[in-house]
Amino acid sequence: MRWTGGVGGACVALLFGGWASGAQAQTAPLVLANGAARVEVARHRGWAAHDLRALEALGATVAEDRDTAAAVLFGDTLRFRDASTYFRTPSGVVQLAYPAYRADGAFYLPRSFFTDWLPARYGERLRSDAPGELRVRTAAATPAASGRRLVILDPGHGGVDPGKVASSGVREKDVALAVARQVREMLRDRGYVVHMTRESDTLIALDDRPRLANAWKADDPAALFVSIHANSHRRSSARGFETFFLSEARTEDERRVAEAENAAVQYESGTPASADPVALIAASLRNDYYQRASNDLAEVIQRSMARVHPGPNRGVKQAGFRVLVGALMPAVLVETAFLSNPREASLLGQGRFRSDVAQAVADAIDAYFQGHEHLWVSRSD
After folding, report:
1. Which of 29, 102, 201, 316 could serve as a FRET partner for 20 with CA atoms 20 to 30 Å apart?
2. C-alpha to C-alpha distance for 280 and 241, rounded to whole angstroms
3. Paired residues of 107 in beta bridges
4. What does the alpha-carbon distance between residue 8 and residue 230 come to, in Å, rounded to a whole number?
């Protein structure tokens, strides 16, 4: 591979492997949205670049100020800074081949961002039929259109509600968000449509979480809701993993976990600090079909978690979780490990273990969809 001069040549080789083919056509305009937009090449700094606002032809919303710019594309917010070779995405920081920059009243990104990174990151949403050409996939061209698979991930707690806190300082809200973000990226890489009830350290009301899930689901039959948490117990020796679905608690331990998670309502302005468990169960009766499906999903998650978790498999359980009430889809709550157990709290603080848990949850969701297609057919008849 050969390239000439400029900043960040090594980055081109590492991050944008298709640069050689792109370089041959770098003087050609960028063609977007099946020819609806043709964006000329700029060479203010010696390398090929395009105006950030070209993303608007793909449905993005773009905002700029003197030193920064942001684009919301397919639900993701991408943030750029003048003179920086790095930009932020919901899943982390990415390095550009050349710096973003401002010139002539516009904000420019290197051409390889458009020709290489975008189609690689959003392959399920964008088509690149030739170098320098991008268009949004139509419903007919999208494999998911004939059976879209939607997953709503719900990282527990957030904002002023830390959830459980280990003696070491590891907080449930941070663990839940970190795991959920990784599950999201793993599922998106497999072609799933994934939403998160929160993508940052913010408080979302318990009752609003299933409402958001139902709004995202709309008329799609193939959807799941997975709420991610970490456990706690008065005995520090308690350890392991368990997955709950919504139904009447059968044991004192099931009631304990539900009461602990439902207590998050105390952080919500204008909301009662307690929930009537009888009312919770009454509200869930109309979802009897989803109860059975949720039980199945919980079992698949437990089997998958058992392959990576050093603690005991505490099994599938049921209780009146407020966050699951009203979800018009299979819905479960995963307790990944015990923050009250020093060893498991230490594991939850480690990126490797969180990645293993995320992989187990993503694999379980994938396996559930593959093995339960009959559920989606029966619900859409």
Report:
1. 102
2. 24
3. 102
4. 42
